[in-house]
Amino acid sequence: RSTPESKKFHHVVFYIEMPPMKRVAETVKLEKFNITILPTVILKKDNKRVSAVIFSIKESSLQLARSMALREVAILCSLLTLAGGAVFKTILIDRPKRWKPVEMIDTIDPPPENKTLYPPHKWFECSDQIDAEFKNRVESILRLYYTVPVSEQVKLLDPIFAYYAGKEMQDKQPTLATVSFIAALSPLHNARRCSGTVRCTKCGPLKLSNGSDFRHFLTGEKAALLSSLCKLLKIDEGSENFKALDELLTSVYGKHRSAFVHGSMFRHGEYHKDYNLPSTLPTETLPYSELLIYRQDMLSFEPIVRRALLELLASKAKMTLDYGLLRLGELRIRTY
C-alpha cells in the first residue's frame, strides 16, 4: 500500500494534434492543474500541427501515473474542444528506427526543448498565426470545470465526452455526430412523469421490467429539452430564436436521431454511392439535395450544444462566461 511519503511527481508526455492554422508560440505552464503545453511544431510526414503536453502526476509508480494521465489527457482534449469549438485530439508519433519515443521526462523545471521530444529530421518549427488567447482560454475552461463540485463533474463528464465524440465524427460520420450532440444534452432532458399508474383493459396495470409501476411522461423529451434550453440560454418564448430552436429540435429528433436509431437511416448519405457528391447539386424533385438541409441542421445544432454545455458548467460553478474568450457570439439560431 502506498503512502503519501512514497509518492512522487511523474512527468508523463502526450502529443496533441492542434487545430490547423493556429499555433502555441510559447510554453504554457498551468501550475494549478499540473499541466505544461509546449510550442506547436509541424510533423513533416502528414503536415499535422502538434504540441507536446506534459502531465505532472503525483503517484507511487509510473504505471499508476500513466493511467491517471490517460484520463486527464482525454478530459483536457474534450475541454479544449468545448472551449473553442475546434477539435483537439491525441496523436501517436511515428517511430523511426533507433528512436525511442519519449513517454516520461525527469523534470519540467525548466521545460524540455522540442528537439528532445521528436525524432530528428521529422518535424520543423510552426510559423502559423499565433493563437494569442490560447493560454487564457485553456485556463478559463479548466478553472470552470474544476470549480464545479466533484459530484457534478462526474455527471457532466459523459455529456462533454459525447459532444467531443460528435466533433471528432462530424466530417466522416455526420449522422452519428448529430446523435452524439443530442446525447450531450442529456442533463437537460428533464421530462417529468405522472405520479399515477397506467392500466390496460386487457393486461391490467402496466409494469416495468423491475416490477415497478409504469408512469407516463407529462411532457415529451423534445418538449422538455426545448424548455430547459430556453431557460438556460435565456430565450424568450415566442421570439425568433424560440421558433427556430423548436423547429430545429423537431428536425434533429425526428429526421436525424429517430430515423437512425429506429430505422438505421443515414441522413447524410454515408456509405451511399453518391456520398461524396456536393450536397448543393439538384435532384429530380428539388433544386438542391436533401442532404444540404440535413447538413445545415447539424451545423446549426452543434454550436447550440456547445453553448448549452458551457452555460451549464458556468451555472454549476457559479461563474460567468467570458463570451469573447470562448468564441461565443450573439445567439442567432438558424433553420433552413
Sum up the structure in keywords.
single chain, 336 residues, alpha+beta, 8-stranded antiparallel β-sheet, two-stranded parallel ribbon, 7 helices, 12 strands
Radius of gyration: 24 Å
Total number of helical segments? 7
Low-confidence stretches: none
Helical coverage, percent range:
25-40%
The secondary-structure element order is EEEEEEHEEEEHHHEEHHH
Largest sheet: 8 strands, antiparallel
Oligomerization state of this entry? single chain
Beta strands, count? 12
Strand pairing plus helix content: what structural class?
A: alpha+beta
Distance between the termini: 61 Å
Structure write-up:
The structure is a single chain. The protein has 336 residues and is an alpha+beta fold. Helices cover 40% and strands 13% of the residues. A hairpin with a 4-residue loop joins β3 and β4 (35-37). The strands form 3 sheets. Strands 1, 3, 4, 5, 6, 7, 8 and 9 form an 8-stranded antiparallel beta sheet that branches. A two-stranded parallel ribbon has the order 2-10. Strands 11-12 form a two-stranded antiparallel sheet. The protein has helices at residues 62-84, 134-147, 150-169, 174-184, 221-233, 240-263, 290-317, and strands at residues 8-17, 22-23, 28-30, 35-37, 41-43, 49-59, 89-90, 104-105, 123-125, 129-130, 199-200, 204-205. The chain is globular.
Give the topology.
Layout (H helix, E strand, L loop, with lengths): L7 E10 L4 E2 L4 E3 L4 E3 L3 E3 L5 E11 L2 H23 L4 E2 L13 E2 L17 E3 L3 E2 L3 H14 L2 H20 L4 H11 L14 E2 L3 E2 L15 H13 L6 H24 L26 H28 L19
